Amino acid sequence: MMWILILGELAVFGALLLGFSVARTLDPATFADAQNHLHRVLGGLNTLVLVTSGFLVAAAIWHRREGRDARLLLLSGMALGLVFIAVKGVEYGDLIAAGTDMSSTITSTPSKSTAWSPSRNRSSKYSW
User: Fold this and answer.
1) Which of 33, 41, 100, 114 is most buried as measured by Cβ atoms within 10 A of its Cβ?
2) Which three-class secondary structure string do you get for the chain?
3) CA atoms of 3 and 96, how far apart (whole Å)
4) How far is CA 81 from the centre of its chain?
5) Please, which residues bridge with residue 116 across strands?
6) What's phi and psi for 100, nearest 5 deg?
């Protein structure tokens, strides 16, 4: 049963990555423009936080199987989960403050008046 779940996840994420790759190939200018709006420092920090928290939880499982106390490792992993949420809150808060909403697009030619525009939102406190 576990292998069915794993293969299903691989199929879903494989299809999503394939679709993403095809879209990027068909419209490289939009993807290049969108990359300029990413906050690389916070994204890198969140990647480090997620990898570390995953390691801590895996280490907690290993410690528990060995009969050792794993509470500190598990609590540390949970704390890093809260750090992840806080960092995402900073990222999303900045986007909302810049006027981004659910109908916004990240292109240089917005189709709606509320769309994200590089020229309109350069006053952001983060370097996009």
Assistant:
1) 100
2) CHHHHHHHHHHHHHHHHHHHHHHHHHCHHHHHHHHCCCCHHHHHHHHHHHHHHHHHHHHHHHHHHCCCCCHHHHHHHHHHHHHHHHHHHHHHHHHHHCCCCCCCCECCCCCCCCCECCCCCCCCCCCC
3) 41
4) 13
5) 106
6) -80, 135
| pLDDT bucket at 51, cuts 50 / 70 / 90 | very high
Buried b (16+ CB within 10 A) or exposed e, 94-106: bbeebebeeebbb
How far apart (Å, rounded) are the C-alpha atoms in residues 96 and 127? 15
Pick from 119, 98, 118, 99: which is nearest to 35 by CA?
A: 118
Annotated domain spans of the chain: 1-35, 38-128
Does 109 score more than 90 pLDDT? no
Over residues 22-40, the pLDDT tens digits come to 999 999 998 888 888 788 8
User: What does the longest C-alpha to C-alpha distance in the chain come to?
Assistant: 60
Q: How far apart are CA 15 and CA 28, in angstroms?
A: 19
